[in-house]
Amino acid sequence: MRRRLLIVLAAFFYYSGFVLIAIWWRRLSSRRLIILNYHRATGGDLRQHMLYLRRHYHIVHLEDGLEDLYSSLGNRKRNDRRTQLVMTFDDGYRDNYTHAFELARDLHVPITIFLPPSYIESGDNYWWLEGERLVRHAQVDKVIVEKGTYHLKDEKDRKALVEMIFVHLRNAKSVAEREDFLSDMQTALAVTASFTPEEELMLPMSWKQIYEMDCCGLVTFGAHTMHHPVLSSLEDPDEVQYEVRGCRTVLEQKLGHPVRSFAYPIGKPQDIGEEALCAVKEAGFSWAFTTVSGVNTPQSNPYQLLRVPVDVSQHWLPMAALVSGVWQFFSPLWTQL
């Protein structure tokens, strides 16, 4: 019901002209760069998203957009007066290759993907998805974890166990602690490493796929730490440095060219921390991206750039209203629906 209401409201904004007016207004204002933050490429209609965005915005490569934003000349040197927009995907899911890459070539739309090299190397499932997968494939009827007993045939207990695993992994004070806990849970739940076809699309891409994308001219890559920890949770400052600097080193060695951009895992201020901000600057990155929603201007901090969160499962009409900024004026209504 909520989804239908949002689509109806977004349709009103679009067909009444509010969205187009907002787009036009941004073109008249000072320089802006909209950076969209996707993750998965399947589970919705990414083609429709791209078609809409290509029609109303000037979709550019990430580095081109940022260099233009911070240039003293800015968009005065461009013939296309539409607001510049960048499409980014975090984490390097396999469907970024099978779906996003295919659409990027078909529609000639540039995209940027932020990669955690450790997952590319191992091919392991991402930690934030593992709790749900482990519980779904559990071969035991109950499990005792940290003095709590969870009955796997009870839906409430299953959800509680998934949440407990996620919170424990998210708040781990080191990558080693996180991986040890995951191993213990896999053993306790008697789960094998096999994946369903649907789950395989949520696994990381391979280096072979990344090389193919890198050569096509439409896909660029950025850094996303080595193991995707919550940086502010890491206890050892040296580990923060390694996660940031090591990621850049590995990607540049693998790709054979500089990697200048970095995306913070999770990406909210409380998930980043001062150590990570310093580490990103010291590692020599030119830009770093949060998941705080907003539009960038020449005054934006290049190490705390904003991105508009978008999900491929969204209908294109709410996506259009969100990207245009119309939703900002109706946020109380948005939260109530």
What does this structure look like?
There is one protein chain. The chain contains 16 helices and ten strands. It is of the alpha/beta class and 337 residues long. Strands 1, 2, 3, 4, 7 and 10 form a six-stranded parallel sheet that branches. The protein has a two-stranded antiparallel ribbon with strand order 5-6. A two-stranded parallel ribbon has the order 8-9. Strand 2, helix 4 (62-70) and strand 3 form a beta-alpha-beta unit. Helix 3 packs across helix 5 (94-107), helix 7 (127-136) packs antiparallel against helix 8 (155-170) and helix 8 packs antiparallel against helix 9. The model has no long low-confidence stretch (mean pLDDT 92).
Which labels suit this protein?
16 helices; alpha/beta; TIM Barrel; two-stranded antiparallel sheet; 2 domains; 337 residues
Please give the alpha-carbon distance between the first and last residues.
9 Å
Overall geometry comes to globular
Number of helical segments?
A: 16
The class by helix and strand makeup works out as: alpha/beta
Number of domains: 2
| Low-pLDDT residue spans | none
The name of the CATH superfamily of the largest domain reads: Glycoside hydrolase/deacetylase
How many DSSP E strands? 10
Strand content range: 5-15%
CATH topology annotation of the largest domain? TIM Barrel
Instruction: Give the C-alpha Rg.
Output: 21 Å
What's the helix-strand series? Answer: HHEHEHEHEHHEEHHHHEHEHEEHHH
Sheet with the most strands, sense and barrel status: 6 strands, parallel
CATH architecture of the largest domain: Alpha-Beta Barrel
Helical residues, percent: 40-55%
Q: What's the average pLDDT?
A: 92
CATH class of the largest domain: Alpha Beta
